[in-house]
């Protein structure tokens, strides 16, 4: 399963990078495959593993912000591994062809 999620602190002003870094740190320390871009962090693993990381990432932000917004999108496809890489490689192959 791949989950793309965004954790946003509310009520802390416009500069939220420090808070988002707390969430990304949790993802990086999880050891699961992941990627972070300007809008989302994607993480890949089994349901319980991924959801535990998302929960802990939200908690890290919640510890410092009065309110937290979570946006989450999941690709639940049993038996598929390395989707973070293979999905992008497939698109790149079509673009090159």
From TrEMBL:
It holds the Pfam family Thiamine_BP. Residues 3-92 form the Thiamine-binding protein domain. InterPro entries: MTH1187/YkoF-like (IPR029756), Thiamine_BP (IPR002767), UPF0045_domain (IPR051614). It comes from the Bacteria. Belongs to the UPF0045 family. NCBIfam families: MTH1187 family thiamine-binding protein (TIGR00106). This is Thiamine-binding protein domain-containing protein. It comes from Streptomyces incarnatus. The lineage of its organism: Bacteria, Bacillati, Actinomycetota, Actinomycetes, Kitasatosporales.
